[in-house]
Amino acid sequence: MRGALHALGLVAAAGLLAWGLLGNSTATEKAVILPAPAFDAAAAAPPAFETAVFAGGCFWGVQAVFQHTQGVLNAVSGYSGGARETATYASIGTGRTGHAEAVEITYDPKQISYGKLLQIYFSVAHDPTQLNRQGPDTGTQYRSAIFYKDAGQKQVAERYIAQLDGARVYVGKIVTQLTPLNAFYAAEAYHQDYATRNPNAPYIRRFDAPKIVNLKTVMPELYRATPVLVSFVK
């Protein structure tokens, strides 16, 4: 669906204007205010950096949210869940590769915890109750998934999902998959920093810009105005 919006170009933009969806982006996406994880990752001597891989619909918006998050050192759009040879934008569009559009987040655990990243992920980055879709994008490549790299991440994610389901913070049940991380493949260069480089694109204004506004509104202590961009990370 997203590819169709791109192909429509000015036609899509005109249509969005007609619907009144451009110019008030915050009205199109709502955050869910969530409690912090009751159980979180902890280490006596945290390393200099850790990584987390989340999938939640189009990777443009998920990447942008975490690029505006304090403590994040880098956030890269890419693919996870399938084989190396199908880790391309053209291939994953079929929905049959096993891949999900995902974001690999490198963060400083002394500044932000894995559990806090999950709180952002579930609150403002996507809707975890939508099965194999987010907004206008449909297919398994847009599924909600946490690719955990070890037992510690899995435990934090499992307990937080149980906590949120138990608190009934959503109308529907969380459908986020918990999947062991086998590999993450960075997406093509033109997908990186997409929301920052294309702030006036109709898709970004309609579906992704509101997420950044929501991060600033709901969790201002975790928001930073200047995003950390892939193009600036060595």
UniProtKB/TrEMBL annotation:
Enzyme Commission code(s) on record: 1.8.4.11
Protein role: Has an important function as a repair enzyme for proteins that have been inactivated by oxidation. Catalyzes the reversible oxidation-reduction of methionine sulfoxide in proteins to methionine.
Active site positions: C58
Species name: Polaromonas eurypsychrophila
Location of the Peptide methionine sulphoxide reductase MsrA domain: 51-203
Family: Belongs to the MsrA Met sulfoxide reductase family.
Pfam families given in the database record: PMSR
Name of encoding gene: msrA
Name of protein: Peptide methionine sulfoxide reductase MsrA
Cross-referenced InterPro entries: Met_Sox_Rdtase_MsrA_dom, Met_Sox_Rdtase_MsrA_sf
Catalytic activity: [thioredoxin]-disulfide + L-methionine + H2O = L-methionine (S)-S-oxide + [thioredoxin]-dithiol; L-methionyl-[protein] + [thioredoxin]-disulfide + H2O = L-methionyl-(S)-S-oxide-[protein] + [thioredoxin]-dithiol
Taxonomic lineage: Bacteria, Pseudomonadati, Pseudomonadota, Betaproteobacteria, Burkholderiales
Keyword Oxidoreductase found: yes
UniProt-listed PANTHER family: PEPTIDE METHIONINE SULFOXIDE REDUCTASE (PTHR43774), PEPTIDE METHIONINE SULFOXIDE REDUCTASE MSRA 2 (PTHR43774:SF1)
Gene Ontology molecular function: any one: peptide-methionine (S)-S-oxide reductase activity
Keywords noted in UniProt: Oxidoreductase
